Amino acid sequence: MSRRSGVLEFAVLGLLRESPMHGYELRKRLNTSLGVFRAFSYGSLYPCLKALVQRGWLVEEPSGQPEEQQPARAQAAPLAGRRAKIVYRLTAEGKEHFEDLLSQTGPDTWEDEHFGVRFAFFGQTSRDVRMRVLEGRRSRLEERLAKMRASLARTRERLDDYTLELQRHGMESVEREVRWLSELIESERNGTERSGRPARETGPDRPAPGPSDNTDT
């Protein structure tokens, strides 16, 4: 399984843990709640759903609504020959598997491809796991920042003004995320959320937006 496919499976399981959905609604949630998936299409989503069904983590249930109908036309009478929409529901095994994934804190959870999605499900994650993921992400970005600074110091004289400005912009983006992570880590240590309320140990919060992606130079 590719890392990208693994991230999509994680997100699908996480969204279906909140409530059953059909494919159209699930894709919409992936696009709007988890911006990293804006480029994904039905061609990516449905093979993923099929694989999760085959593994026993999801079940398919007909909803009685025609496949081609949009939500605004839900009250219209179904036309003959149209298939009912399939609703995907998380099984007990799927929930257990997602909770196992949610507890993981290894290097993959710190990477650009995975961190934003993991962060979106922090409302369902225990505080100690959140701390390990946040600290791992900060450590990874600090390493990246050190490499960027060293590279810039070696090549500064050979860069034109625009390339130099692009390098500086990339460094500033990483520096901002490091500061943001440090603030989150301090809030977790103090047992408070960004809003000032006491931090929850776990909860069914809807996904929150993750940080913008950064790329290595």
From TrEMBL:
Region (Disordered): 185-217
Biased amino acid composition, Basic and acidic residues: 185-204
Pfam families the UniProt entry points to: PadR (PF03551)
Annotated signal peptide: none
Superkingdom of the organism of origin: Bacteria
Coiled-coil segments: 131-172
Residue ranges occupied by any Transcription regulator PadR N-terminal domain in the UniProt entry: 12-98
Entry keyword annotation includes DNA-binding: no
Record keywords: Coiled coil
Annotated protein name in UniProt: Helix-turn-helix transcriptional regulator
Organism: Streptomyces smyrnaeus
